[in-house]
Amino acid sequence: MLTALPWKTFLLAFMLLLNACSSPGQEVGAPPPVQDSTFGPLTPRRIVSTEPLRRGRVLDRNDSVLVATRPVYILTLPQRPPLDSLKLSSLLGWRDSLLWHRIEAALPYEGARPKGGVKLLLTNAEAQKIQDNQKDWPMLKLEQRTLRSYTTSTGAPVLGYAYSNAQSFLNLIQRYRRGRFYRVRNGGVETYYNGLLNGHRGYAHPLVDTLGQPHGTWAADTAFQQGQDIHLTIDANLQAYAEKLLAGRKGYLVALDPRTGEVLAAVSAPTFAPGVLTAPDRAGTRRKLVENEDMPLLNRSATLANPPGSVFKLVNAAVALQLGAIQPTTGFRCDQSLINCVHHHPVPRNLTIALQYSCNPYFYQVMRKLIEHVPDSLVADTTTARHRNLAAWQRYAKSFGLDTLLGVDLPREQAGFLPTPAFYDKARRTRYWKFRSIYSLSVGQGEINLTGLQMANMMAIIANRGWYYTPHFVRSVGDGGPLPRFLEKHHTLIDSANFEALVPGMKAVMQRGGTAATSNLADVGITIAGKTGTVQNDEGDDHATFVGFAPADNPKIAIAVYLENAGFGATAAAPVAALVIEKHLRGSIAPKRKHWERRMKYRGLAYEREHR
């Protein structure tokens, strides 16, 4: 009867077998020795460069360092005897309550007793105070380590983390709720550009004789490559400002430069500090983030697709113009027997007035005319005509980068969705559906879903009158530029003249009588082209949206704002967008709008108190 070998015996036997199968001096994985007629047997070697690798830094567009690998100090508190917290707080210059808040944030759960004691990160100045008074505090252990450090408290979904540095966080979300794991796991640029940030060691592959002299190579050598710095497109100051405006909200804001596709700010709210997910003393904070029902760990701008609401009327109008369903001068009656219209406004005699007042019945009739158009060749088969027309609508709308991955440089980007005839055939269980059963498409609801990046890119397309560069977060890697695919210009299937026809109505939205007139920046000489939206929500308050670009005739920023359960886009989302536009273009906010900032700041403080 065979008995199981102890694991140490098994391991020793395996190593002896491995050694017996290898020629003397031959490395495992290398080819067998080569017999040379002049030099005799040549043994393949694999030599690794000894130069230490340094992981590259992450900097913003203005060269401010946001992430770097740095030495840090870690203080380990004793479990016994009891700690004189008042005396230690005084030494470190902390309030006594701060010490206990730090300890609470470090514990994985309330009442936990870590085997090695509670560990706290200290600044260099704080560590110096401990070192200077070490004789009075023999029970404290201070050590220096090299860790990936964040110099900013903003931009967490963009910066992300290297998976090797975030194992405790990844293990936590796997254990807590598996269904959330892939939704909230977002490594940001730290993961997407991990190979370039890490660099790689150099490898030489010589063939050596019995005297150790090289004679050719058995494989191509690999050059040593130090980890490269990456410069983000993000403006850290604008990012921080936008995060403050969205504090206390759920939603997102994406701002980009339409001329280049560079993302200037990308906020997913609620926000959190990026260092929380990797810091050794934030286990308790990580657990609170995972358990928070508002899901702050979800990158809403890239991985959450929602119905866009009335802002999608811009796409529908562009497609209808292209396919000849309407002209810029086409008018329709505001017939509320078709669909409700929440705005009181003049008769929409043309497209500009319809956009200015966001007339739902107007765009209902635009979409109906597009879908129900029956050419003479199909006069006896209206079902086939509707299928063909919806397929054409979907194809032209898809050319905006919708219903597909844009290809941004962040992990887990979502594609959004545009319905097709086959989708409705299956959903309605018949191919004889009518326009009345899909009319919600006319106001950007129903089955349409877009991400925040897609909505901002939609604005960039209109700003450019028909083309775009793929939105991206890194403008240069090392001494080079962005990845080559971000320099490729993409064109839609819509003619530039049809985009031009949208702009007067978008300007009118921000003017007297328009749905976002109170958010115009005319007093500082900035003309915004925009569109408001309100997304109906059966499970609570409606969602507020706004998209736009500025200056309208020479666009330098395109923006999309989506605030969950915030009500009307005109009163909730448009002011946020206007402040970010003004901050970017002018660097400061006019005094008459300072009260907007204060109102949003107070809302953020109230949210923090509620979730502390």
TrEMBL record:
One Gene Ontology term, aspect cellular component: plasma membrane
One GO MF term: penicillin binding
Keyword Signal (UniProt): yes
Example GO BP: peptidoglycan biosynthetic process
Membrane topology field: Single-pass membrane protein
Signal peptide bounds: 1-25
Residue span, Penicillin-binding protein transpeptidase domain: 251-580
All copies of domain Penicillin-binding protein dimerisation, residue ranges: 54-214
Pfam family, one: PBP_dimer
Gene3D superfamilies: DD-peptidase/beta-lactamase superfamily, Penicillin-binding protein 2a (Domain 2)
Keyword line: Carboxypeptidase, Cell membrane, Cell shape, Cell wall biogenesis/degradation, Hydrolase, Membrane, Peptidoglycan synthesis, Protease, Signal, Transmembrane, Transmembrane helix
UniProt key word Flavoprotein: no
Compartment(s) where it occurs, according to its Swiss-Prot or TrEMBL record: Cell membrane; Membrane
Superkingdom classification of source: Bacteria
InterPro entries to which the protein is assigned, alphabetical: Beta-lactam/transpept, Beta-lactam/transpept-like, PBP_dimer, PBP_dimer_sf, PCN-bd_Tpept
Protein name: Peptidoglycan glycosyltransferase
Organism expressing this protein natively: Hymenobacter properus
